[in-house]
Amino acid sequence: MVKLNKDKFALVILLSLIGSLAMAENELEHAMDNMNFSVKPSRCIALHKGQKCYQTVEFSWRLVSGGLYCLYSSTSTEPLVCWQGKALSSFHYEFQSAESITFYIRNETLASTQAKTKVDVAWVYKNRQKASSGWRLF
Amino acid sequence: MKIKLYLFMLTAMLVSKSIVAADIVSDVRAGGDGKSSSYEESYIELGVSLVVANNPWDIAAGEEYDDHDLNLDFDVYGQLKKNNFLIEVTQGTMDGLNLGYTFLTTPTWQVDFLAGSLNGSYEIGKDYKIDDNDTESERNRKIYERNRIYVGTGLRVTHYWGKYVVQARILNDFVYQSGTGGSLRIGRGWQYRNWYIFGIFGGEYRSAKTNQMWYGIDSDEATARYPSYNAESTFNFSSQLGFIRPINENWVLRGYIGYSNTPASASKSSLVEDEDTSYSSISVNRVF
């Protein structure tokens, strides 16, 4: 009977976990590739950093299997919209944010994230930096 | 439509004739977020604008700017801030060129020393000196086109009061001895989706010396068309309403309309017609 000491046992467990995670990630990427989850436009332009940017965006995706799906933003635990199977393949959304936001589709049946995309917020006047306060002399 | 390009100072002179105000426009442009503009660093904007202006200058004698005409103009905005030194160029709105130093900045206050706040026009080498051999029309042209420039030195205090920006300036021209000027302005910005709308209202004081530089006619240069005139000190009001909208990360659309009354003392000068200044502009600018 093969006996493993504690260090070797821990190493085997760690390698197994890494392998599982890598496989899970590959599966997720594969699922994401299959879904073609995208948003247009993917960029919202505000005048200054810190100002809220407004943009009507359209998410689109392609689903290959059934189940209950929901679209989420990374800023809220409440879904933006949920649907069954292939009932929905696009969604219009009024984006309002001063920062970039990630959106993701979650398969509620499998309790797993299926695809992610992002709306970036950019600014025209970019060099807005916090200045130190107080009196200054030459 | 006539296509003309003007240097910023020339346009500032013809459109606004103002020695006061400053980057309050860029302050309120931020949508009234109640923060000091010193948070911004440097940028420059170049663009073209369509301008309709009605200014009180005696247009019959001048050929640079036709009353009520639609003109294609050249737009320059910008500011350079480095180690608290500042250079600001505000074209077509309320200011010319500012060179200065910011020596106090808090989240709600900013105090700048303006070493040079330039407004007007100056053409080096052009002969504006009237001599006895000049014909009447040459005299008229020289009076109308003479260099008029105000180089103010003084303080500018800006207070960020909630969504409002209040700005006061007090300046004196030590270079050309063109007197004292001052202004008090209040501005506010609003954001509606990606439209940034601003409004500015203010009052402006000019000393008799300053007005003499702009509107005065000395007795030894007077003509039948431009008789001798000694200007008095004036106080006038001005207002401006404008917007700016990002087109993309590098381009913006700007627009504004403005009005300022011509004080009675100034309108008595034969260089000035008895009417107020109004202007409107829409421009597309590239931000660098």
TrEMBL record, chain B:
Cellular localization per UniProt: Cell outer membrane
Family of this protein: Belongs to the MipA/OmpV family.
Chief place of localization: membrane
Entries under Pfam families matching the protein: MipA
Keywords recorded for this protein, A-Z: Cell outer membrane, Membrane, Signal
InterPro entries, alphabetized: MipA
Signal peptide: 1-21
Keyword Mitochondrion: no
Protein name per its UniProtKB record: MipA/OmpV family protein
